[in-house]
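Summary for the steering committee. One of the milestones for this cycle was to obtain a three-dimensional model of the protein with zinc ion bound, which we needed before selecting residues for the alanine scan. The sequence and ligand used are listed below.
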Amino acid sequence: MITRSLLLFVAFGLMTHASAQTAAPAAKKATEPTSETAAPKADEDATIITPFRPAQLPVAKETHTFQLAKLNKLQATETTRELQRLYSAYANQNIVDGSPAGFSKALGFIATITYVVHQDLGDNRYFVKASWPAVGSIKDGLPAATDAYCILLLDHPVAVGSSGKANGMHVGMVSIQFTAKFPPLDGKRLTMRRDAFLECTPLEDSPAALQKFATEILQGSSYSVTTLEKVTCKTCGGLGFTREAQKGKLEDKRTPCTECESGKSTITVETKFIP
Ligand SMILES: [Zn+2]
């Protein structure tokens, strides 16, 4: 937790550092009865990155429990296969860090990002063109992107023009003000709002890691995972339509259900693991 949290603070620290520098003269000016003026010339090339919209994780609509003691018992929903499925989701929602437990909950969706570096913004921050798949639900998940400009904070320096693949934790959207140094935007001073990602290492998704996970639960560790689940629609009872009796007619009037798709709706469920 400590190392990763620090890194995140550093990430935003780095992002806000430049803006704090330029904000200082502006604050001084506010006390003087002067009109609005352009930023000082010295800062014309400075890269200013400020948080714009924080990453959001879906709020669980339902809470389930997964009881390890019931594993593979007759009529129990707790099967080995279900445990593996939930653990895979869990592994992708937690990142390896320097905390005593060895990992902590990710603060945003984790996506596999393929990228091409367009500009080095300093301090391992890069302006990249990237693609990533959709993570989570359509409504409150991270939408997929193809060849989208975004900001990436990597664990190591990379060269401009190089391409790569990384596990990126979405940390929300940032506002970036910078002078582009690549075609076709070369030399242009731009202000953009872009998604920002932090390179991270998700938990290992292996039989050994799953075994360790189960052992820790049995020893009293409290873990939970948030997943999207297809459930029977409560409004129409899984029919996909609602019925209404019509006077003088044998057949009921059928109205398509607005709450679901063919009787199934997708909801966010938090599953708590218990011994
Ligand atoms: Zn329905």
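Key point for the committee: The CA atoms of residues 35 and 240 lie 62 Å apart.
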